[in-house]
């Protein structure tokens, strides 16, 4: 978008980054980017100004504000905490689908689950974490993979933790409602067995059934904040998340996973992501963007 000027501001701040209904100055963008980085670890270069503008103008309209300066003032105040959460939700990307990057689920089914299922049958504890679960497609895909390999898995101590920073995504995932298009990647037999067809105002929908829902706990969690989990995970999915982080934040997140993984635990990451820094030496690559924690890398 071409820069615009306005008589409402003077000097350097009169140069807008995005044209349209509202003025967004470089100072406004910097303030928003700083807050997003502090809250979620997400790095926003100035080249993303158009995206920020397009995603936040709806919030300005809803709130009846006249400028991004007013909006920044609101979300910076103590009383603007709720709107700051709305801003975070608007600026985070939630691109997901069932069985996205299918090679991960194939590896999980063939290389990882057999041993975990045997352990579960003997009374062992199995835990899987879907970090940044978005609308639930990923953890439900994990649950479907479990159920297809071990139909009575719900009778064992096997659980999936699904977390996301966006409370709206957690609510949507917990509801477990998807349309036909969303469930296209799900094999027909699994769809019919573990989802129930229902009608809503938006038309035909599919509701996740009890077996799926009993396996998954959905929680709001900020990956760059504190983690309350104490037990270790056998498998962690953290895919297509760190691409929005700076290198230092990426390395910090990878290293934080190490003490939360059980011996030999697996870490699945996104197709365009790579482990980097010292933490990379703690894992061995098993397949495309699939890593196994080395025994000697276990954190105490």
What does this entry look like structurally?
The structure is a single chain. 39% of the residues lie in helices and 19% in strands. With 300 residues, it is α/β, with parallel strands linked by helices. The chain has two domains: 11-91, Chemotaxis receptor methyltransferase CheR, N-terminal domain (Chemotaxis Receptor Methyltransferase Cher, domain 1); 102-177 and 210-297, Vaccinia Virus protein VP39 (Rossmann fold).
Summarize the structure.
The protein contains 10 helices and 10 strands. With 300 residues, the chain is an alpha/beta fold. The protein folds into 2 domains: 11-91, Chemotaxis Receptor Methyltransferase Cher, domain 1; 102-177 and 210-297, Rossmann fold, CATH 3.40.50.
Q: What is the topological layout?
A:
Layout: H1 26-40, H2 49-63, H3 68-76, H4 81-91, H5 102-121, E1 126-131, H6 137-149, E2 158-164, H7 167-175, E3 177-178, H8 188-194, E4 195-200, E5 203-208, H9 210-215, E6 216-220, E7 233-238, H10 247-257, E8 261-269, E9 283-287, E10 290-293
Parallel strand pairs: 1-2, 1-7, 2-6, 7-8
Antiparallel strand pairs: 3-5, 4-5, 8-10, 9-10
**Strand composition percent:** 15-25%
Report the strand count: 10
Give the low-confidence spans.
1-14
Order of helices and strands: HHHHHEHEHEHEEHEEHEEE
For the sheet with most strands, the description reads: 7 strands, mixed
Number of domains: 2
> Architecture of the largest domain in CATH?
3-Layer(aba) Sandwich
Q: What's the N-to-C terminus distance?
A: 52 Å
Number of helices: 10
CATH fold assignment of the largest domain: Rossmann fold
Portion in helices: 25-40%
State the strand order across the main sheet: 6-2-1-7-8-10-9
Q: Based on Cα principal axes, name the global outline.
A: globular
What class would the helix/strand composition place it in?
alpha/beta
């Amino acid at each position: 978008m071409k820069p615009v000027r306005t008589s409402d501001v003077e000097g350097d701040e009169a140069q807008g980054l995005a044209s349209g209904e509202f003025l967004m100055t470089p100072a406004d963008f910097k303030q928003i980017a700083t807050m997003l980085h502090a809250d979620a670890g997400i790095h926003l270069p100035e080249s993303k100004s158009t995206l920020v503008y397009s995603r936040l103008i709806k919030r300005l309209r809803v709130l009846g504000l006249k400028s991004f300066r007013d909006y920044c003032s609101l979300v910076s105040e103590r009383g603007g905490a709720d709107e700051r959460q709305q801003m975070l939700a608007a600026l985070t990307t939630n691109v997901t689908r069932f069985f996205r990057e299918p090679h991960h689920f194939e590896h999980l089914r063939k290389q990882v689950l057999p041993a975990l299922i045997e352990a579960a049958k003997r009374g062992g504890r199995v835990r899987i974490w879907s970090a940044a679960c978005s609308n639930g497609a990923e953890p439900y895909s994990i649950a479907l993979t479990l159920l297809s390999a071990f139909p009575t898995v719900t009778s064992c101590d096997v659980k999936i933790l699904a977390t996301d920073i966006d409370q709206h995504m957690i609510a949507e995932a917990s509801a477990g409602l998807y349309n036909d298009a969303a469930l296209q990647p799900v094999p027909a037999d699994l769809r019919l067995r573990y989802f129930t067809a229902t009608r809503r105002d938006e038309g035909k929908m599919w509701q996740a059934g009890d077996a799926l829902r009993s396996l998954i706990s959905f929680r709001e969690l900020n990956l760059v904040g504190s983690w309350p989990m104490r037990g270790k995970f056998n498998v962690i999915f953290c895919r297509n998340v760190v691409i929005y982080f700076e290198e230092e934040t990426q390395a910090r997140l990878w290293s934080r996973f190490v003490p939360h993984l059980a011996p030999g635990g697996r870490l699945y990451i996104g197709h365009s992501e790579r482990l980097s820094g010292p933490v990379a030496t703690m894992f061995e690559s098993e397949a495309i963007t699939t890593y196994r924690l080395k025994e000697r890398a276990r954190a105490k």
